[in-house]
Write a structure and sequence with these properties.
With about 100 residues, the chain is an alpha+beta fold. About 45% of the residues lie in helices and about 25% in strands. The two termini are about 30 Å apart.
């Protein structure tokens, strides 16, 4: 019986006969210590927001970053987004690079 696999974010959905058959969630990956340290310092108020953005961009190419950091680096100029992101936990999902 043929099946279709659809990837969306950190999930893979398998469909058979045009109906959902299985949902697989990709495992989380380890968070880099540099990224965790940057977010911890930002949460404590010991870091300027622009310095946080610069630090995240510098480690992004080297070790990869979490989704939270990717959102922040593209939206860091909007203060309401930053306040919301500071409350989110750090989780790094496996993604095809």
């Amino acid at each position: 019986m043929p099946a279709v696999a659809v990837a969306s974010a950190s999930h893979i959905y398998i469909y058979k006969n045009m109906r959902p058959y299985f949902k697989f969630t990709l495992p989380t990956l380890d968070i880099s210590p540099q990224e965790k340290e940057l977010w911890d310092r930002a949460n404590e108020g010991n870091m300027e927001l622009s310095a946080l953005c610069d630090g995240l961009q510098s480690i992004r190419a080297e070790v990869g970053t979490t989704t939270k950091s990717l959102y922040y680096s593209t939206l860091f100029a909007q203060n309401d987004v930053v306040a919301h992101l500071l409350l989110l936990p750090l989780v790094r999902w496996a993604t095809p690079d």
